[in-house]
Queue: 4 jobs
Job 1
Amino acid sequence: MVQKVERGTKTWEQALRSLMNLCARSEKCSADALRLMKGWGVADVDAQMVLQRLVSECFIDDSRYAAAFVREKINLSGWGVYKITAALRRKGIDSTTISTALAECGGVDMSERLTELLQRKIRTTKAKNSADMRAKLLRYAAGQGYDFTTARNVVERLIKSDEQCEIFDF
């Protein structure tokens, strides 16, 4: 006999099946799974049981999720270390896992990546003078999660090279 369930709620079996399908298509972390199950009305005890099963069957692996997240955010979104770390912490990933995932992508030169981002930003940014441009670029770099020292060095290099080429439209 099929168990009748309220609309918008799922049994633990339905939640397990749905999460297996989702996890087969894209990486999910434990916090994502718990958030989804809470939205589906799955009881906390059942949600923990489903999560344990997903982890034991390797559908969910927070370290694998963190590594994929770091790769995506560095390569596609251009995020810096601080923004990536904050986002993973919000997802409930522990700091050891975050450090390991960031270390795995250690081959990426963050100043080179920031240089590419800021060169694109310069083309679309209007500034009164070079000091105004410098401030806008530093704020943008900070918002993207880059440390101040790296941002300052890259911005100074770009401002000097652009002043020599007279690219700015002040």
Job 2
Amino acid sequence: MITRREAIKLASAGAFALAASRAHAAMAGATQPNATAIASAASSDTALDLRRLTTADLRALPRLESPSEIKRTGRTRSFSLVLAAGAVEPLPGHRVQTRTVNGASPGPILRMTEGDDVEITIVNRLNKGTSIHWHGVPVPFLMDGVATFSQAPIAPGSHYVYRWVAPQAGTYMYHSHYSEMEEDSVSGMMIVDPQDASRQPRYDVDVAISVTSLQWEPSRRAEAQAILADAMLMRGMGGESKADPNPGMGDAMERMDMVEYWCFNGKTFPATDPIRVKQGDLVRVRFANVTHMSHPMHLHGHWFRWIAQDGAPLSDPHVMNTIAVDPGQTIDIDFIANNPGVWPLHCHIVSHMVDNKDVMSGLVTAVVYEGFSLPSMMQQYLR
């Protein structure tokens, strides 16, 4: 079977269409289950004086501040990451064999405070060498985790200890930097907190979202082959042409994007975790993109501020409702929960939010206010 990576070289770029109507359909079934929620929503226009219709309150928020220097805290944060083959479920009942970190993909979020001494032990239980790169962190050269540059690969059955000092507060990530094409599921996020909490606003909700992808499970390979063949107008390559449930839908790039699971924190919609908020909450969302494509993230019903990128605060936060998170980037945004309801947060590329059956899937979640229910598609995965 031709792989997506082979096929993508022969493809052309896709275009956006129908995102708004599909997002609306995906949010169907979201209800206001009680009188309190209905009254809150009805009175919000008066209570907030329609301030949600302007960006004034958002622009009035303090920006993030970088420290002028980093002082050692004297604390050591120790972590252990075990890299091994395993099975994950982007949707319940859909098991995908992949390479995991502590049994999951993405791996755990590593949290620390700037100035902490950090000690991370990598145990390699994979069948080939590996290394871990601390993406965005200015570590000492020998700790950078780039095999053949700063270290030899960590051999199967062995371990390696990385030691460095936590940098300024922000959002970072880690990922394999050896055999990356095979080990692209070996990744995770790192969050560094400030020593002085007054350097940033006080957030009521702080959510980290790792954007990843997983190939379909073996039971769907014939279907994937047919979709790729259809995408490249080489239908004889598919073997089982009937396996493509919607032949001809979308252009080549879009179709090829529909043979993998696009995931928020290892889950694809509707199994993604909702972001639960209360009226008036200040919410921070941290994105990390370890995929091979850009993802323009769009939030319905709210403006947000772009406050940081790659661990560095923006001196002049930008107000927007859609922001591109490019491969290898971390992007931080924040918003004021001032518009009660159930609102989609999603990638604005159709083939990353719609599956090969033209059903909402992939990089979609919901911002759910207190007193409101989940969309019906998500209710079966209630957490």
Job 3
Amino acid sequence: MTHHKLIIGNCMSMQEIPDESVHLVVTSPPYFNAPFDYKGLFKSYDQYLEVLNRTAQEIFRVLQKGRIAVINIDDMLVDGEKFPIVADATKIFQNVGFRYRDRIIWKKPDGYLRISRRSGVLLQNPYPMYFYPDNLLESILIFQKGKFDYRTISKELKEASKIDTKEFSENKWYMTIWEMVNVLPGSPLEKEIAAFPEELPYRIIKLFSYKGETVLDPFVGSGTTMKVARQLGRNSIGIEIKKSLIPIIKKKLGFDEQLNLDNQGDTFELIIRKGGKHGCIS
């Protein structure tokens, strides 16, 4: 039996979550003012970084000692200006107390992007100084809160959560470059949402948590992390800005009225905060 809690409200405050009660964080913050992902949500880049900073503080508070926070994020091009989000986010998480453990590059499939207006400038002007590359990569940043005590995990729980070494090897999880197919635009449960593929939280949850533990996604979007957590026998908590996504999240998890996949006694809890503005900024 697993429990899944969805909170509609401000992710910079996680008052419903006790200190050191979460075992893993997997999330992808919204792209900074991307036209397809919460367009115009942030008034400035400094405000965007402040959201990351305050969210990182809360993540550090609710995460157990020794545990992992994984952030899928990347630099962003807005109106011709490139913002160094990966570097700034890394420093933010370090400053709140996390140890920078690793960085994995997510490579999207060849052919995902064709020559765009940006990279195509050189075709129109085949001279030096006209080169602007298109991006097929995103960063998966891995942070750790102190050191993990392996002695706290029982032998039985270790065996129940054992990683399939064949899957690990054949899919090259051991590399710092992961090739994963992204969610295609217009997917039924991802409309107007820049969702990451299920393969991303699947790998992270397998690699950094044990069965029965709790996975948090403070920018839960359409609920991909929560869905995968349930499939893998973990509890989940999601925090989301948009109240309109509630039916999509419930459907994805299998808790909607039309398609209830709850055949294991799993439970779903919805919290909609009263008063104040919903969202990740205030």
Job 4
Amino acid sequence: MKTKHKMKESFGDRMVGVCCYVIFSLCALVCVYPFYYIFINTISANDLSARGVILFWPQGIHFKNYVSALQIDGLFQATFISVARTVIGTICTVGASAFLGFMFTQDVWHRKLWYRMMVATMYFNAGIIPWYLTMMNLHLTNNFWGYILPAIVSPFNVILTKTFVESVPRELQEAAEIDGAGTMMVFTRIMIPVIKPIMATVAIFSAVNQWNAFQDTLLLMTNTKLYPLQFILYQYLNQASSLKALANSSSGGSSLAAAAATAQTATSVRMTVTIIVVVPIMLVYPIFQKYFVKGIMVGAVKG
């Protein structure tokens, strides 16, 4: 019978392990606490929250802030726009990144020239005014596709995908070509199933960028029906003092009889809408997490 012998750790090894756990725990706390702080302030008494009393534990717990926030006009329309631009934009970006990353590994006309021209756009751009004039001439102002089309081709995502494709054994493509498969069949039948990890990684990057974007709305959109959630949050952060009255009035006569602890304040509006905007995209990451590490590591290192 074989016996397993454990190596005895020295005092120095144990101290290093303890220090690592302490440092990583502090880093995790620094990352998690802001979200926790915002959440406990949304469910605590609004008068205490406005005075900055709530720091670690909620007090006077209630959920009327969320009820009032969900009744504000335009919130559901903004949610629809955010979801639509995130889903459609992510699908288009992932598809374009996968296809271009694959094609830049094939024998196409002046492949290196097109690749270098694309990479150059990561470092040089004309600026906001020429970009706006281009978007206006393409009739993408006050147009939902103004959110989608400019973000379809991302050089960074294409580079990641191309590097991942180069790590795939060339023999797979050669075997398919011997059997008579063309370029598109190789891409759809061979490459897409193999490069799913990097596609999931690109999907995370694209979804987060699309969900968090609001500057394009600020520059391109004047139609309130095309405002996404992030732009609504941007407005709320700047106008929370006036919007607290809107949140109070939208709940009808019950708000007049409400106690000061549950009446809307500028702070409660800001924090409640922040939670509503942030939580959906936080739920996306666990779905793709199993692909993320493999995709980003293989896609970032050649060989």
